[in-house]
């Protein structure tokens, strides 16, 4: 069951990455991490946290506005 929850969390992050502005995406990531902590095992939460961190890096790198700072 937890593997289904982990996969769903990753799908939600991917949907948000593709469809949200940077600020909204970051907020969604924080919310999902907080909720995932309550339902995933420690190992799965670490995996999910790493996944979210990579998606955040991708979103920042792909956004030309963030590179002008």
Question: How are the elements arranged and paired?
Answer:
Blueprint: H1 2-19, H2 22-39, H3 42-62, H4 64-67
Protein model, in words:
There is one protein chain. With 69 residues, the chain is mainly α. The chain has one domain (2-67). It is 88% helix and 0% strand. The protein contains 4 helices and no strands. The chain has helices spanning 2-19, 22-39, 42-62, 64-67. Helix 2 (22-39) runs antiparallel to helix 3 (42-62). The longest helix is centred in the C-terminal third of the chain and has 21 residues, at 42-62. The termini are far apart.
In short:
The chain is mainly α and 69 residues long. The chain has helices spanning 2-19, 22-39, 42-62, 64-67.
Q: Which structural class do the helices and strands define? A: mainly alpha
For the biggest sheet, the summary is: none
| Through-space gap between termini | 43 Å
Overall shape: it is elongated
The overall pLDDT average reads 89
Work out the radius of gyration: 12 Å
* Helical percentage: over 70%
Strand content: under 5%
Low-pLDDT residue spans:
none
β-strand number: 0
Order of helices and strands: HHHH
Number of helices: 4
Can you tell me the number of structural domains? 1
């Amino acid at each position: 069951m937890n593997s289904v929850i982990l996969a769903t969390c990753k799908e939600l992050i991917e949907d948000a990455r593709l469809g949200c502005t940077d600020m909204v995406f970051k907020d969604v990531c924080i919310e999902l991490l907080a909720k995932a902590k309550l339902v995933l095992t420690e190992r799965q939460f670490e995996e999910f946290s790493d996944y979210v961190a990579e998606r955040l890096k991708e979103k920042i790198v792909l956004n030309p506005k963030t590179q002008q700072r």
